[in-house]
Amino acid sequence: MKIVKYPHPALRTAAQPVTAIDKEVQLAAGRMLDLMYSAAGLGLAAPQVNLGYQLLVMNFEGDPERKDAECVAINPVIVESKGSINDREGCLSFPGLYQNVRRAKSVKVQAYNLKGELYEMTCSDLPARVWQHEIDHLQGVLFIDKMGPLGKLGSKRDIDKFIADFEKDKKKGEIDANLIPKL
Ligand SMILES: [Zn+2]
Questions:
Q1: Listed residue (150, 154, 182, 16) closest to 94, CA to CA
Q2: pLDDT in tens for each of the 183 residues of the chain?
């Protein structure tokens, strides 16, 4: 398992809901947490590791020691959002790119945990931003889509570089573009 970078097609594919929380999903969540921590990220969505189902892992402190800040979400939905705030954001599929993105200030989300229990969480600011960013990934929506005109302009050089690198890797046969569905 590895983190795919933009413009890998998995990042633009809507993920399917998980219908059974089995060993496969539990294993994937554990490996995604490991990957997220080793990349020093706050969140990782299944499409970012080429998996085609609705699974997220997050740690709102970005600290593997802080298990209380760790969160696994299956089939998550935002049920309420309030306010608006513009702040800096990055993405593990766009290493080194940071731009301001406008998001809701607070959200209420519902998701299933690895035991199959439905839970609800209300949060604001950074955790709310992480939830919105990761849930977007499940719809094939990326933070570059949500940037304002200045952010888009400021990202152009990085994005062109990601595209050029991706084309190079593809020519070398290093891109596996087949999204792995949940069986
Ligand atoms: Zn991301």
A1: 154
A2: 999 999 999 999 999 999 999 999 999 999 999 999 999 999 999 999 999 999 999 999 999 999 999 999 999 999 999 999 999 999 999 999 999 999 999 999 999 999 999 999 999 999 999 999 999 999 999 999 999 999 999 999 999 999 999 999 988 888 776 666 554
Q: How far apart are the C-alpha atoms of 88 and 71, rounded to whole Å?
A: 22
Domain that holds residue 15: 9-171
Concerning whether 134 is annotated as a catalytic residue, the answer is yes
Query: Which residue do the tokens 């690895």 mark?
Result: 114
- Residue of 61, 80, 117, 134 marked catalytic: 134
Ligand 1 center–CA 158 separation, angstroms: 15
Number of domains in the chain: 1
Asked, for residue 93, whether it belongs to a domain, the answer is: yes
Ligand 1 centroid vs 90 CA: distance in angstroms? 7
Cα 135 to ligand 1 centre (Å): 9
pTM, to two decimals: 0.95
